[in-house]
Design a protein that fits this description.
single chain; Alkaline Phosphatase, subunit A; 8-stranded mixed sheet; 12 helices
């Protein structure tokens, strides 16, 4: 019997057992304990809620590295052709968008890698976790000897094992979980954070010790496809995350972007195709987003890029497809990576075990209904980045409420105010025109930072 024939046989057999199980349960002929025993001998599994595991949705998360809002050929905003790349083609991401919802105002949690990733897995902001930068010094992209007005705080750079990740939530209810690719959350292996399988606590270097090259995306995709195949054969629901590595070749930046996005998209397409081949595409949610904007000024019409709290640094692609998700539509609701944990928990039937200190909200109602809303613990969204970086104006915090965004730079202490809906390029500062709104938003910003005991920059006594 070939591998394909065997897989087909196993799939049909498991489906038959599932139908029998539901019939027996309806007739009250079997006790749950006996059912578990029988199904266990058949190679199936029962979830913590007593439902067949194969009835529960799977999750494929693909997390991009340094890919901004216009770094793909997916039009991120309805009616706005400027919201996609003019030279990069990502046809497989276009397939995902055609089968799901594209969030026009999707945000990473920071303009740098580690903070964004910390918030993604936990549903807590980098400010709350004190994981606001990529190095313990809190300083990169500037020289220690530079005449800096402020001294940035020293952040946490290792994701605490006490924090609950979405992998741990799903693992509690019988899911198989795996993480392959870039981790960048310290030296503790992802298997200590709820993932059954991983290829290590990788940072910007791949497991092979190489910087990004064309082979790396294929390697991680191969691992992901193999993992999915094994779980489908076992009749077990799964959560798979595949994370990309950064561009580190010696070509010009535009050529690097094009090559990296093509490789990323091609291997995303291979995993997407595998869902169809394995017969689980109709029961799998696929999520694509990235950790921050592209480096430099390659995020037009948005302003700035990696390292900055302006839109070019934090507004990113954000697409979700899957069962009962509205197909080929856009949403203008502001969403962030904090919302992914509660969304996964909700879709998998685990919403009740999400802890109260999670700051994100479930996106399920928006995915299914154009009029849906996100319920979070607070109405404002805050991005805290108390650090110097290559492309920023110094330590800053930004707060969004509705269509307005306040950016508070701590060197100058002169808040800037933008209407993101009308001016996504942040070209017109409205602070002098709307002083009352500036005061209101600044009060909310200060109150939030005090509530989470955020680390703040302090004056440099040696500044001259």
């Amino acid at each position: 019997m070939s591998a394909i024939q065997y897989l087909f046989y196993k799939t049909v057999r498991n489906r038959t057992y599932n139908r029998l199980f539901r019939r027996f349960r309806q007739m009250k002929l079997l006790r749950l304990s006996i059912t578990c025993l029988l199904l266990g001998s058949m190679g199936a599994s029962i979830s913590a809620q007593g439902q067949p595991a194969t009835d529960r949705p799977n999750f494929l998360i693909v997390y991009g590295e340094g890919s901004g809002w216009v770094s793909t050929s997916v039009q991120m905003e309805e009616g706005n052709p400027q919201s996609k790349s003019e030279f990069i083609e990502t046809p497989n991401l276009e397939r995902l968008a055609a089968n799901g919802v594209t969030f026009s105002r999707g945000y990473a949690l920071s303009p740098r890698c580690t903070p964004s990733r910390a918030g993604l897995y936990t549903g807590k902001s980098p400010g709350l976790l004190h994981m606001t930068y990529v190095t313990a010094s809190g300083l990169e992209g500037r020289n220690p000897g530079d005449n800096l007005k402020l001294i940035p705080p020293a952040p946490v750079t290792e994701l605490p094992v006490e924090e609950t990740t979405y992998a741990e939530i799903l693992k509690q209810s019988g899911y198989a979980t795996a993480h392959f690719g870039k981790w960048h959350l310290g030296r503790v292996d992802p298997t200590e954070h709820g993932f059954d399988e991983s290829d290590g606590p990788n940072a910007n270097d791949s497991p092979s010790g190489r910087d990004f090259n064309q082979a790396e995306y294929a390697i991680t995709a191969d691992k992901g496809i193999d993992f999915m195949r094994r779980q489908v054969a076992a009749g077990r629901p799964f959560l798979l995350e595949v994370d990309h590595y950064p561009i580190m070749n010696n070509r010009n930046v535009q050529e690097e972007m094009m090559a990296e996005r093509l490789d990323m998209d091609a291997n995303f397409g291979r995993m997407y195709d595998a869902l169809e081949e394995l017969g689980v595409a109709d029961n799998t949610y696929v999520i694509f987003t990235t950790d921050h904007g592209t480096q430099g000024q390659l995020n037009a019409p948005l302003n700035n890029g990696k390292g900055s709290l302006l839109e070019g640094g934090i507004r990113v692609p954000f697409i979700i497809g899957g069962p009962s998700v509205r197909a080929g539509e856009w949403s203008g609701e502001p969403v962030t990576a904090l919302d992914i944990l509660p969304t996964i928990a909700d879709l998998s039937g685990n919403a009740s075990i999400v802890k109260e200190d999670v700051e994100g909200g479930s996106l399920v109602s928006i995915l299914r209904d154009k009029e849906g809303e996100v319920e979070r613990s607070r109405e404002e969204i805050v991005f805290h980045f108390p650090h110097y970086d290559l492309n920023n104006a110094g330590p800053a915090t930004a707060l969004m409420l509705g269509d307005y965004k306040l950016v508070k730079n701590y060197e100058e202490d002169q808040p800037q105010l933008y209407n993101i809906a009308l001016d996504p390029g942040e070209t017109k500062d409205l602070a002098s025109d709307m002083p009352d709104l500036v005061v209101e938003l600044d009060q909310k910003l200060v109150a939030y930072l005090e509530e989470i005991d955020a680390q703040m920059p302090r004056p440099n006594p040696d500044y001259y």
